[in-house]
Amino acid sequence: MTIPRILVLGTGGTIAGAGSSATGAAYRPGDLALETLITHLDTLGLAADLVPQDVAKIGSQDIGWAEWQALHIACARALDDPAIDAIIITHGTDTAEETGFLLDLTLPTTKPVVLVGAMRPADAVGADGMRNFANAVKVASDAQATGRGVMLVMGDAVLSARDARKAATSAIDAFRSFPRGPLARVSPARLDWFGPPNRAGEAARYAFPAALPRVAILTAGAGMDEQPVEALLGIGAKGIVLAGMGQGNAPRVVIEALARAAASGVPVVRATRVDEGLVDRNVEVDDDALGLVAARALGPAKARVLLMVLVAGGVTDAASVQAAFDAG
Ligand code: GLU
């Protein structure tokens, strides 16, 4: 059996983080070089040829278009390179779902692309990074991993990047998956898929955006007024995602202001600030009459990513934006 050759793209995050002590809370995400991580992995005897490439050394709260473009270029090259079998991206967990979803929208499904992170820095007692990485190698090396879109490996689970969201600030088991559950359970010794690949042979759904339009998330709160909407339009927002209450609700004056924004050509997507659940059209808000879009299964962070991609591609009318969210 030939061992797989896996491109490992490093961006930073806790998996590459180091603290001043094994028991303290403070640490610097992204401090360790990817080579150092790979050297640690060598001691695990993993059956894979890992090819490291540093893209960034940052906490993922600082990731943006430049790093995303570098990642996209590196992934696209590797997908075309017959010498590379799969891609692993080491990433901070804060925005792993955003990077994962953006790549999922803009890459074909021809080889496994796996994001992996950690909740504890590499030198902390009980660090999870090496286990998560070993699990990611197990997934990326597996013949059944192709044709599932971009995946996130954390906490011994394999999640679709479309479905994953960070749901805990510090627990090792920090990610949840909605509306689909995990694609597989994984350990360094074992991998169990819960179904066959369902996206084999898919082309990239969208072109990688040439720039990121200003799309803002507005979180609804009881008693708020419409001024935050006006302020967003005042700074030139090209799209607005409402992190609404319940089924994407907000006080009446806010919904009216959002409808005015939509009428002026700024697409508005209603998502929810609730941890999990669908936001459907025309439940308590008359989307048909007001020109608004329902986010369906996408939470605010991922709704923003999709809306940025759509607006960058010139898709702004409510019907077309809704169709993209329905497909999401
Ligand atoms: N905030 C940092 C980041 O997202 C560290 C958190 C983590 O990786 O778990 O990169």
Describe it.
Helix 5 runs parallel beside helix 6. The protein has an eight-stranded mixed beta sheet, sandwiched between helices. It has a four-stranded parallel beta sheet with strand order 13-14-15-16, sandwiched between helices. Strands 2-3 form a two-stranded antiparallel sheet. The chain is of the alpha/beta class and 328 residues long. Helix 7 (287-290) links the parallel strand 15 (268-272) and strand 16. It has helices at 34-42, 65-80, 96-106, 129-140, 227-234, 252-263, 287-290, 300-312, 318-327; strands spanning 5-12, 18-19, 27-28, 49-58, 86-90, 113-116, 151-154, 157-160, 164-166, 175-177, 184-187, 190-193, 215-219, 239-244, 268-272, 293-294. It has two domains: 5-193, L-asparaginase, N-terminal domain (Rossmann fold, 3-Layer(aba) Sandwich), CATH 3.40.50.1170; 215-326, Rossmann fold, CATH 3.40.50. The chain contains nine helices and 16 strands. Bound molecules: glutamic acid. Residues 12-14, 29, 59-61, 92-94, 117, 119 line the site of glutamic acid.
List its salient traits:
single chain; 328 residues; alpha/beta; Rossmann fold; 2 domains; eight-stranded mixed beta sheet; four-stranded parallel beta sheet; 9 helices; 22% strand; binds glutamic acid
**What would you say the CATH architecture of the largest domain is?**
3-Layer(aba) Sandwich
Distance between the termini: 38 Å
* Main sheet: strand order: 4-1-5-6-7-8-11-12
Percent of residues in helices comes to 25-40%
User: What overall geometry do the principal axes of the alpha carbons give?
Assistant: globular
Strand portion: 15-25%
- For the secondary structure, the number of strands is 16
Bound molecules: glutamic acid
CATH topology group of the largest domain = Rossmann fold
